[in-house]
Design a protein that fits this description.
Low-confidence stretches: 1-29
CATH architecture of the largest domain: Beta Barrel
Structural class: alpha+beta
Number of helices: 5
CATH superfamily of the largest domain: Cyclophilin-like
Distance between the termini: 48 Å
Order of helices and strands: HEEHEEHHEEEHEE
Mean pLDDT: 88
Number of strands: 9
Strand content: 25-35%
Number of domains: 2
Largest sheet: 8 strands, antiparallel, barrel
Shape: globular
Length: 204
């Protein structure tokens, strides 16, 4: 009877451990809204990413985060109403990534298939994070975060000639005050002078 009781106990412990492992693993793998934190010289910006709506974009971005691409990177570009041509469609955002700090890596990354706002339903609103690109499907490590509602960056918008918009994939959930402080830093010809340090982007 003692042997039987110990054996049952052993199986119970094993099953509990296995179930906990599977449960934890599933939560990590299947999370539809992973969070990342952009650690900057002005404080942290936490973002919620929409893996269900924009799976390819989020998967690629998290791969770059996991690979440490954004360690010692920068916010380097800013668009304000005042620093854009008077006859051009206006938008307000800050742009960052590794283009200035690791151009060799940034320029060789494969393009991410374009997930438009029409496909995802994620509009460019205040605090939305999205991928910078040239032609559709060429986006890589570079990203931007919107200040205010930016309809011109959605499908059909006039801020890009092909009218296919940009691939939005998440939004700021903490640190909008940090974002706005960065936005107000000194710039010249649409570039921060000096660039704003991004110490790293990490999974929360």
């Amino acid at each position: 009877m003692v042997i039987f009781t110990r054996w049952i106990g052993g199986v119970s412990v094993w099953l509990i451990a296995a179930l906990l492992f599977i449960s934890c693993g599933s939560k990590t793998r299947l999370s539809e809204t992973p969070h990342v934190v952009i650690q900057t010289g002005y404080g942290d910006i936490e973002l919620e990413l929409y893996a269900k709506q924009a799976p390819r974009t989020v998967k690629a971005f998290l791969k770059y985060v996991d690979s440490g691409f954004y360690k010692n990177s920068q916010f380097y570009r800013v668009l304000t109403i005042e620093n854009q041509p008077s006859n051009a469609p206006k938008t307000e955002l800050i742009q960052g990534g590794i283009w200035k700090t690791n151009y060799a890596r940034a320029s060789t990354l494969p393009g991410i298939p374009h997930e438009s706002t029409a496909q995802t339903g994620i509009e460019h609103k205040d605090g939305t994070i999205s991928l910078a690109r040239g032609a559709p499907g060429t986006a890589g490590s570079e990203f931007f975060i919107c200040l205010g509602r930016q309809k011109g960056l959605d499908v059909g918008g006039e801020n890009i000639a092909d009218r296919q918009g940009f691939a939005a994939f998440g939004r700021v959930v903490k640190g909008m005050s940090v974002l706005r402080k960065i936005y107000k830093q000194r710039e010249s010809e649409q570039y921060f002078r000096p660039p704003i340090p991004i110490y790293n982007i990490v999974l929360q």
